[in-house]
């Protein structure tokens, strides 16, 4: 029987804490839960009021991996849920609003993925995102070059950008925006991706075509579509090691000269948060959101 833990007055059955989920490092499910508890202060603000999709890997990244968008069976009644619009009709999804619901979701062994809009205003995007995905032999180094170009281009339009690792092999660029629909943000993001390709034709690519991608960075603008989600800041990823989608400074991006330079695992985040706080905190300030031109 799973031990019962009380988190802020909520009773949770946390199971299989000794189970190794990342064999390459021996990282256990208990350590997954400890990681999420450790970063809850900076993670929760990026989850709050956003419908959450879970990428679940209960037997580790080498086992079955599957997306859960609807409210999972057995979800406690105290976990907040909301009806959200979907292409195929409305759906009820989970909102991770507090530490108990974060720990409940982490016990399912999950990556957290969120939309670029808040659940109360699904018709209005509040973030723009670019997923910079390198095609070998390109790496995070080339992603950083493209990110720096996009940062300056966004700044030309009065939009301040921030970066985080994808937790895999690429980089995510995010900015807070206001007064636009997901469709308008998607159109603007595509325009900038096309501009990036024109400015750096040997480096950047705005199309997903596989045959074009070797040696280039795919500037994925499509995750701004209302139905799409992106890995939430600070989420663990289903990779061989317990890598994290970690916020990074622009100085780190500028100084990225070798693959692996911006790889961060769960064990790295406590000290980073202590040193930097939430590097993506400005995204949460409505007063710092930019307007599309």
TrEMBL record:
<dbReference type="InterPro" id="IPR052171">
    <property type="entry name" value="NHEJ_LigD"/>
</dbReference>
<dbReference type="InterPro" id="IPR014145">
    <property type="entry name" value="LigD_pol_dom"/>
</dbReference>
<dbReference type="GO" id="GO:0003910">
    <property type="term" value="F:DNA ligase (ATP) activity"/>
</dbReference>
<protein>
    <submittedName>
        <fullName>Non-homologous end-joining DNA ligase</fullName>
        <ecNumber>6.5.1.1</ecNumber>
    </submittedName>
</protein>
<keyword id="KW-0436">Ligase</keyword>
<dbReference type="InterPro" id="IPR033649">
    <property type="entry name" value="MtLigD_Pol-like"/>
</dbReference>
<feature type="domain" description="DNA ligase D polymerase">
    <location>
        <begin position="28"/>
        <end position="279"/>
    </location>
</feature>
<dbReference type="Pfam" id="PF21686">
    <property type="entry name" value="LigD_Prim-Pol"/>
</dbReference>
């Amino acid at each position: 029987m799973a031990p019962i833990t009380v988190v802020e007055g909520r009773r949770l059955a946390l199971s299989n804490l000794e189970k190794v989920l990342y064999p390459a490092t021996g990282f256990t499910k208990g350590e997954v839960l400890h990681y999420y508890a450790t970063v809850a202060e900076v993670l929760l603000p990026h989850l709050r009021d956003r419908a959450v999709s879970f990428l679940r890997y209960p037997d580790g990244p080498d086992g079955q991996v599957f997306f859960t968008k609807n409210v999972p069976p057995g979800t406690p009644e105290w976990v907040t849920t909301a009806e959200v619009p979907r292409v195929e009709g409305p759906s009820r999804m989970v909102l991770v609003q507090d530490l108990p619901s974060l720990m409940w979701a982490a016990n399912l062994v999950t990556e957290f993925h969120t939309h670029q809009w808040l659940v109360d205003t699904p018709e209005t995007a509040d973030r723009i995102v670019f997923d910079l995905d390198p095609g070998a032999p390109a790496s995070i180094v080339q992603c950083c070059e493209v990110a720096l170009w996009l940062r300056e281009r966004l700044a030309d339009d009065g939009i301040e950008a921030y970066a985080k690792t994808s937790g895999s092999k690429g980089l995510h660029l995010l900015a807070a925006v206001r007064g636009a629909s997901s469709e308008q943000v998607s159109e603007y993001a595509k325009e900038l991706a096309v501009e990036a390709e024109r400015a750096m034709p040997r480096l950047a690519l705005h199309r997903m075509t596989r045959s074009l991608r070797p040696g280039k960075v795919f500037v994925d603008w499509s995750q701004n579509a209302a139905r799409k989600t992106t890995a939430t800041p600070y989420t663990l990823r289903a990779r061989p090691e317990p890598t994290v989608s970690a916020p990074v400074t622009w100085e780190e991006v500028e100084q990225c000269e070798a693959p692996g330079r911006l790889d961060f695992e769960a064990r790295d985040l406590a000290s980073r948060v202590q040193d930097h706080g939430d590097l993506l905190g400005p995204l949460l300030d409505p007063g710092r959101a930019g307007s599309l031109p």
